[in-house]
């Protein structure tokens, strides 16, 4: 096949991918018009187009040849890399992700749209909604994801500044006691996407002894250090290979906590769905009576777990461990003191 024909052949593939579907059948004339718009000489010869289409079918492309009353009508590509509903799901996930800036979300959706026909692309962009009230403004996040990934693969430590909001609703770096900007030095272990937020899991070297969770949308000025990651076998979660699924189950709402403990609760029946949503199907459920269940699971005793239990009011009672019961009583007492 001459070079010019190679170009026409591959341009035909792109035209069918981008402009054809079951509702938009391309005639030979329309294919030639689109060729010209792309700066390519039209194929003109109907026999050549037919040969190209047959070659594409042999190569595995799912192309439908439409004929009506023995008269040729046109072609369209049946299956694309992604079905429209698959692209819509991906687009909605991108729009809903709080750790991605509004501008970056729009850029990613534009790229996703190019994986299907122009008609579905317009549909994805037209009907999607970005709630930018919850979107991060940290433009470094994607570069940081890449840096953290490289650091873990190269077994190297990282450093960064960690930011929080002030009363002016501005992100400001956390400070040391002397008001200098605090620099975190971390043994990175993993990155975890949980509850629409991206977290770095790692050991803060200055507070050695356990893993901490850092939101990627609050990390800035991240650097990969020359120092190798320390041996982390003294940390329970790293004794064997780190398991992110197991870690997230035990780190309630990604709050860092003490050692993993068996948690025993009594809860009303109406909270069964809530427990399955929060802890998965690994929770142990035992019926006490028609309205009360005994629920057991493993988790780290953390502030996140304490506050979640308190949110459920009198629908939950903690049975074990005693340390959790004590923490909840102390929290209730502090809340009560606010209203005396």
TrEMBL record:
Protein name, as recorded: WYL domain-containing protein
Lineage, broadest ranks: Bacteria, Bacillati, Bacillota, Clostridia, Peptostreptococcales
Annotated InterPro entries: CBASS_pafABC_assoc_protein, WYL_dom
Species assigned in the record: Romboutsia weinsteinii
Alphabetized PANTHER family for the sequence: PROTEIN PAFC, PTHR34580
Superkingdom: Bacteria
Domain WYL: 145-222
């Amino acid at each position: 096949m001459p070079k010019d024909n190679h170009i026409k052949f591959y341009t035909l593939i792109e035209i069918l991918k981008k402009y054809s579907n079951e509702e938009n059948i391309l005639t030979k004339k329309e294919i030639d018009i689109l060729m010209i718009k792309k700066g390519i000489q039209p194929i003109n010869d109907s026999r050549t187009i037919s040969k190209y289409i047959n070659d594409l079918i042999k190569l595995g492309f799912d192309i439908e040849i439409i004929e009506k009353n023995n008269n040729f009508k046109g072609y369209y590509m049946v299956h694309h890399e992604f079905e429209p509903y698959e692209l819509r799901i991906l687009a909605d996930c991108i729009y809903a992700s709080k750790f991605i800036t509004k501008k970056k979300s729009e850029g990613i959706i534009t790229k996703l749209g190019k994986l299907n026909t122009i008609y579905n692309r317009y549909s994805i962009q037209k009907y999607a909604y970005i709630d930018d009230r919850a979107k991060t403004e940290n433009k470094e996040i994607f570069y940081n994801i890449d840096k953290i990934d490289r650091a873990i693969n190269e077994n190297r430590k990282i450093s960064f500044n960690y930011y929080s909001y002030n009363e002016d609703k501005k992100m400001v770096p956390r400070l040391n006691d002397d008001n200098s900007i605090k620099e975190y030095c971390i043994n990175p272990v993993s990155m975890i996407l949980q509850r629409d937020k991206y977290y770095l899991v790692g050991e803060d070297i200055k507070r050695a002894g356990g893993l901490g969770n850092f939101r990627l949308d609050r990390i800035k000025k991240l650097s990969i250090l020359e120092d190798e990651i320390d041996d982390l076998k003294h940390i329970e979660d790293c004794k064997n290979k780190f398991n992110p699924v197991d870690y997230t189950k035990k780190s309630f709402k990604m709050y860092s906590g003490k050692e993993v403990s068996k948690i025993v609760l009594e809860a009303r029946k109406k909270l069964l769905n809530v427990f399955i949503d929060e802890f998965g199907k690994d929770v142990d459920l035992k019926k006490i009576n028609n309205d009360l269940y005994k629920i057991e699971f493993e988790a780290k005793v953390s502030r996140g777990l304490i506050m979640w239990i308190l949110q459920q009011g009198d629908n939950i009672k903690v049975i074990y461990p005693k340390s959790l019961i004590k923490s909840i009583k102390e929290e209730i007492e502090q809340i009560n003191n606010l209203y005396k």
